Amino acid sequence: MTHLGDRLAALADGELDHRERDRALAHVAHCDACRAELEDQRAVKALLAAAGAPHPRPDTVAALHDLALPGGPLPPRARTMPQGALVPDLPHPGRRPRGARRDSRRPGDRVRSRLGVATAGAFSVAGLVLGTAFVAGGAQPSSSVVPPAAELSVEHGRTSGAVTVGDPAVGLMTTFDPAATTRR
Amino acid sequence: MRRLAPFAGAAGVLGSCALVAVLLVHAGQAPARDAAPGPGDTARDRGPQPAVDPAARRLLQRAAAAPSSVSYRGTQYVSAWASGRSSSHVLEVEHSPVRGTTWRAPAGAGSGGHVVSSAPDAAEPSLLAAGAATLLARHYSLVAGEAGARVAGRDTDVVVARRPGAGAAAAPVARFWVDRETGLALRREVYDRSGRVVRASAFVDLSVGAVEPSAEAAVPAEDTGRAWAHTLDDEGVDRLRRHGWACPWSLPGPLPLVDARRGGHDRAIVHLSYADGIASVSVFQQRGSLDPDRLDGYRRATIGGHGVWQRDEVPRTVVWASGGTVFTLVGDAPERTVDRAVDALHDGAPAGGGIMERLGRGLDRVGSWFNPAG
């Protein structure tokens, strides 16, 4: 029994025409190995599709702004009062601003911590990509191949004529063989 | 979560370092182009340096450049001999520097009326900075000055290419008859090690000048006359190697890699060209397994202990599968050179089961999900 090989990816991607899809699905119906491989490929594709575009949380964006200004805090934000006037949201001397979390760490620790999170995130993405590639590259290609002899003969003749001195017709001789002509 | 962040960061950095180390080790396995001899490339292959007569080099450079400025029409024969078989054709040739060349088998021959075309820039070699004449001068000693016979009624100068060395080792490999007036190569003969002619082609009549395309030589509309357009440079070849394709920088002979490109449906076929200016070998590779039942005109054979399928034509075609890849070698080269090339590629073919090959295949496949046209 010949397994589906590379056609599994095409089946998962919906790239097969009706006839090929019917044949592939008929094979999957009674082949456990191909069915399992198909499930894996569909799962990976679903994972990639569900990931979508990244939407960072607002506090992550603010943290990244902090990273861009390591020398000090951000300028005070303006806050709208009930009357509509704008007043600066200045902290009281000796008190933490209302709503601020307790954080006794030094600014350098915070930067390193955020850098670590960013690095871990980047590595996670790389791991996801490599993991996906590892799974997708797992199946040894088993599709049946027949070299297109006539096309390869002409291709050889044309490149051969460019890299040898003399007669390009020699490299194209095979294409004038009667058997080759009838094979076209 | 915040307490875990430094550890996650450290793990990320360590993991990244490990990944970079793996990639660097893998990159280190790719042989550098200049330092890497091909499989089976021995010291004998790189033996005595060729002695090149400047006049001979100029004649061959003129012969290589002549088709870009001279139009002609004529009749030529092309013959080739190999062990126990031969092939011979008489072809009508039309050439124009603008339109390129067409060859047509005259009516009545077995392939009568069959037309093959080649555009003026049919295949610019992607890995060969200098021309074919320079490539030839790197591998063979060149001598000019032999009395030239008349070819198709025209005066010629003769250039002899010999194997580098002295005495019997320096036997002639090829002779070229170069037209004194136009520089066209009017006749070529290639010899085996015992001095027998194995390739011969010559014009039996030739008219030089403006050529109007004849109706008989009309090229089918789908024939571009060009080799596959997707060429690869050194970096592209390295990338292929990392993805598990067999891409030696040279084959025994030695035959250096002079051109690389991809083509066929979805560019699924890799084509590597090896040449020394006289002999040329094309190596085509496709992912998959070989189905011998669907091979037409091939017979089973053994080369270097490896089972192959080959077609008894000239140029010789050999097909085999190794490591999940189907190889097709088309060789316009001595039998022994083709045998050694097949043997070297068989031995040097990636097993196909390594982690980097698997990752390479996977990245190709994932890339195709996002860019089906690429």
Secondary-structure element order of chain B, as H and E? Answer: HHEEEEHEEEEEEHEEEEEEEEEHH
Overall tally of domains of chain B: 2
Overall radius of gyration of chain B: 24 Å
User: Helix/strand/pairing class of chain A, anyone?
Assistant: mainly alpha
Uncertain stretches of 5 or more adjacent residues of chain B: 22-30, 34-44
Q: What strand order characterises the main sheet of chain A?
A: 1-2
Oligomer: heterodimer
Question: How large, in whole angstroms, is the Cα Rg of chain A?
Answer: 32 Å
Overview of the molecule:
The complex is a heterodimer of chains A (184) and B (374). Chain A is mostly helical. Chain A has helices at residues 7-12, 18-30, 32-51, 58-68, 107-136, 149-163, 168-171, 178-183; strands at residues 78-80, 86-88, 144-145. A two-stranded antiparallel sheet of chain A has the order 1-2. Chain A is flat. Chain A starts with 6 loop residues before the first helix and ends with a helix. In chain B, 23% of the residues lie in helices and 34% in strands. In chain B, strands 4-3-2-1-9-8-7-6-5 form a 9-stranded antiparallel sheet. In chain B, strands 10, 11, 12, 13, 14, 16, 17, 18 and 19 form a 9-stranded antiparallel sheet that branches. Chain B is of the alpha+beta class. In chain B, helix 2 runs antiparallel to helix 3. Chain B contains 6 helices and 19 strands. Chain B has 2 domains: 54-208, Lipoprotein localisation LolA/LolB/LppX (outer membrane lipoprotein receptor (LolB), chain A, Clam), CATH 2.50.20; 228-370, Protein Transport Mog1p, Chain A. Strand 3 (144-145) of chain A pairs parallel with strand 15 (289-290) of chain B.
